[in-house]
Amino acid sequence: MHQHNQIELADDWYVGFSNELLQLVIASDLYDGFPIEQQKMVALLLTTYLEDCVAQEGGWCRFKETQMELYKRPLPFYTITNDYIEDEVNIEDIQFLLWCFNSGPVEQGVGVVDDPFGDNLLQLANAVYELMIEKFNQAPIGLGDSFDWVVEPNQFQNHLEEKQETSESEVITRFLELTNGNKIHYVYTYKELELLFSKGLNFKDSKESLVELTDFSDFVVLAYQKRLIIGVGIAKYFSDTDNVHYSKTKAMDEAYVLFCEPRRCPFPILEYAMNHNLLADASLPIPNGNQLLLENWDFIARWYLGDFYGVSY
């Protein structure tokens, strides 16, 4: 967790504190039944949080600085009041970190989404906070050299691709003529998609270019920079007067996967949809999931999509 290799004087104190935290984690309903190694990791990461707060340096401090640069607030999800103290531990920080530990992408399928306001999470966060407040003035100042342990260093950079405005090209001009100036268009079958490209846009090799999409449907086509981007199997989620196949029920139940599953939706389409209120009914599968998603969608996309954030692929 740290860049130094030799044992420092402060290390022994934090090891002891981590063991105290471990007892809270083991006793909690939130981590009941988890393997002991995972419980130890939660205690270790929470200890690193305390150490970073005391030193006012390290991975946690860099994470908060990035959040302020991007969103003008230190944390997603939680309301930050005047009780939030920048250079001390805060219960909202601990709640957020517990959410982080329990929420993330899986190898296959959509990412795991925990409730940042779940009863078990709030209960453990309160117990951890009370212990940290009790010990804060005793905690020694370490080197503040923890790694970027909250997220990967590049995960919250700006777009990985340089952003450019959609510019004129023959294909874009023709596409906008066909769609009455709309940059986004919905196509429901592969046959319609192939006709759009072969007849409407005069693509000579449209069948070869689209052959991988033969067995799919429910397409979204977006004019992006000088080219067209296709999203597959997602049109039903877009609340647009031009989209006759929109399903509010499916949007409410399923559209969150666009934010949480890499490669599920090309990012320029996702960003365009959010900027034009086309995914207003999307909801995380947790209480108050719609509001939490709409208010924090960019953070959630960065968190779950990782290297695919900002990429049109």
What's this model, at a glance?
By secondary structure, the chain is mainly α. 46% of the residues lie in helices and 5% in strands.
Q: What this model shows, in words?
A:
The mean pLDDT is 90. Helix 4 crosses helix 5 (119-135). The two termini are 33 Å apart. The relative contact order is 0.12. The chain is built from 12 helices and 3 strands. The longest helix has 20 residues, at 36-55. Strand 2 (219-224) and strand 3 form a beta hairpin. It has helices spanning 9-27, 36-55, 59-71, 91-102, 119-135, 170-178, 190-200, 206-210, 248-254, 257-260, 267-275, 289-305, and strands at 184-187, 219-224, 227-231. It has a 3-stranded antiparallel beta sheet. It has 313 residues and is mainly α. The protein folds into 2 domains: 9-138, no CATH class; 170-308, no CATH class.
Share of β-strand residues? under 5%
Strand order of the largest sheet: 1-2-3
> Low-confidence stretches at least 5 residues in length (pLDDT < 50)?
none
Total domain units: 2
- Approximately how much helix is present in the residues? 40-55%
- First-to-last CA distance: 33 Å
Calculate the mean pLDDT score and round it: 90
C-alpha Rg (nearest Å): 23 Å
Shape: elongated
Please, how many helices? Answer: 12
| Helix/strand class | mainly alpha
| Sheet of most strands | 3 strands, antiparallel
Topology:
Blueprint: H1 9-27, H2 36-55, H3 59-71, H4 91-102, H5 119-135, H6 170-178, E1 184-187, H7 190-200, H8 206-210, E2 219-224, E3 227-231, H9 248-254, H10 257-260, H11 267-275, H12 289-305
Antiparallel strand pairs: 1-2, 2-3
